Amino acid sequence: MIALVWWLLAATTWAPAASPECPQTTSGLYSRIRSVGLDPQRVYHVRDASIDRPNLHLDLDDGTLAFTEDICGRITGAFFEGEGEIRLRPPNRVERGSLALFTGMAILEEQFTSAYLRFNDDTAAVLQRFLTPAPEGAEFIKEWSDASQSLAEFDALRLLLDFSHFLPAPGGGEGGSELARKFPPLLHAHLLGKKLGGFEVFWDAAGTEPLWAGQPRVKDGISFFDIWTSFAPGAAGRATSAPPPDDVSITRFRIRAWVQPPTRLQASTEMNVRIRSGGERTLLFELSRYLKIAGVEADGRAVDFIQNPAIEGTELRRKGNDLVAVVFPAPLVAGQEVKLHFSYAGEVLSEAGNGLLYVGERGTWYPNFGLSPAQFEMEFHYPANWTLVATGKKKSRAASDEDEVETNREAGAEKVSRWSSERPIPVAGFNLGKYVRAEAKAGNILVEAYGTKGVEKSFPKAPAEVIEQPAFPGVPPQRSRSNVPIVVTPPPPSPARDVQAVADRAAKAIGSFSQWFGPYPYGSLALTQMPGNLSQGWPGLVFLSSFAFLSPQEQADLRLDPVTRELDNQVLVHETAHQWWGDLVLWKSYRDQWIAEGLANYAALMILEQQNPAQFRQVLEKYRRDLLSKNKDGEWLRDAGPVTLGPRLESSHFPGGYEAISYERGTWLFHMLRSMFRDSMLRDSRFRDSTLHDSEAASRSRKGRANPAADSDEPFFRALRKIRERYAGKSISTRELVQVFEEELPRPLWYEKRPKLDWFLEGWIEGTAIPELQAREIRITEKTGVTTVTGVIVQKDVPDDLVTAVPVYGATPGNALVFLGEVLADGRETGFRLIAPSGVHKIVLDPKQTILTAPK
Question: What is the Cα–Cα distance from 497 to 516, expressed in whole angstroms?
Fold first, then answer.
């Protein structure tokens, strides 16, 4: 099962001579690959055979093995039954911890009784010397033929990338005759383990992380594919991975769409595809499984394509997308630019009621791959009584063109609007509804909010209340001898009433973020209502949950607790922050996705901190409690893994693991960085009262805006502005993020006399620890007018090499707290010595709770 499409653009480097056994059409070849059966003439007894890949070893100790039938003169698979064993060794602590969560083993050693192997290399030849004829061949084929044909489907598209080079070129000849004779090696093993049950191991040299192992599971009626481990061999000590070079990229989209509420979309997408290295004959795209392609053209000529449903339980399936393979007449060459044209249609919209649609609930609405920024030109046709808002800038109205209401005899009146991205952007979207509009300004940035008069049909209803009314009109209840109970139901929410407040809040957030992070990246921002409790940010456009349009009274009517209410309020600001983090600055691989979510979430909390410091602390405390919680099986949520596991954190063990770790621990990581930088700036004036922390926040709140140049947050904000400038329109990795912060690292945070944050990357970003801190052996001495504090900081329940920047405070008469300095606690016990002002009689560690720690 292909759980993650890391082989999306595998670069094939060979094509053998055409074979008479090779299907001559794309559909024929694909059908052959996905349904290939076992060969009755190739059934053997196998003994003491082995298959080796880096970090992976498969033993076929004793059993029966049948190869699959030839495809283009090559054997691509085998089925084994008997006694076998797998050994898989992850290269670093993160991957060993992930493997142990799912299997109970840091190194996978499992015996198996059957295996279906799929490969594209010389694996069959390697096994030949361990084989002898098997007399029971016919029975073996009969028993396992159906299973092997079913399993063949899983790798069909991946093998099509390779075997499409066998297809004939137009006018006859060989499509890839100029290429070397070698595929990027592939091995996919479906194993039935004695203890672990069915699981899979996948090795693909074309992937950025060639080796992974995982298992499909259904829990509480939900399908998952648990990725046990995934890595590039040789990545010892490093959990992050480098993405592949952009051998293939899309530079421009031109989309023309006919939107037909309530559910239908018809569209044509034209794209410019740039080839860097060359060699590909087949490219893979993603498209909603509810959209069916009618045809694909390359440079004006029809080309073959295969639209393949995503496999149940995969991430692709959960996103609602299929894979589309486009097969070219000949291998693409370096420097080539191809113009592709897709025509497609389907029921990709969802009607939620009250003039509210959900666009994109069922996958991506145009063919795409990756997150490389591209220029977008979009034209939409839609009914005249609806409002459409899209990413980019709406082109100015022209008499015969823009927003003209046309008459269509069959469909009735329609509008046409055209949108163009102001700069290359990674994704584009649109929303459609019967909206009421409001606007605000953030400097010269136009902010628009669009809400409907009602919420979706599935929106929760406020509970009714019973009140006492006098039996006689005009008589006050307290004077009436007989009161009548009346059931009062609060009126349903109306987002249209609150669109102005939404626009105002977003405009205010843009003002703060522009000062903290640098200029807003686009000319405008539109916030449109979307059904459900999830929101989504696009460049210049936000799909905002109906919950974010609730007034304080409507929130109260729903009886939301204060923290939940505040989190709903923060969604608007969080999605606005994504305009910088996630839309302008992208992430390099799935291991770096936490940067966008954690930073956008923390940016929203910094706005809350200005307005209500107490609620800011309450939200952080909720995150701490969440991360210290257990699932119903007694497993700690923190053990789901570090933030760098990205979408892998969502598993059958922790269905909400991605949100909790990426958002909540990610938020804490940025809060820790900011607090460390701030405390280090205070160290030069360490006898200043620590209430400076709160007075700074209060001062900023009184001014109504941030002034990072005037306070101790400046190094933190300066690092973020550097990231924005350096990586605008580009992707950033976790290592690169840390390197920018190292450039601004205050000297008190230098580790081993170097301005490095390796300890923070390895222990906190790539770690899962939530330590308990204690101070021990504290001695306070005064000598010749100098007060010295010595002691030991203890970190409990942590790895031996965890380093934590611990702020140390001293209590003076009256119990006022004074900041003494930061101690880089290294490991389980660390001695320290600090100078304190006269009168300090007690030591307190991290009283402001700026470190993600467990309560004592």
Answer: 31
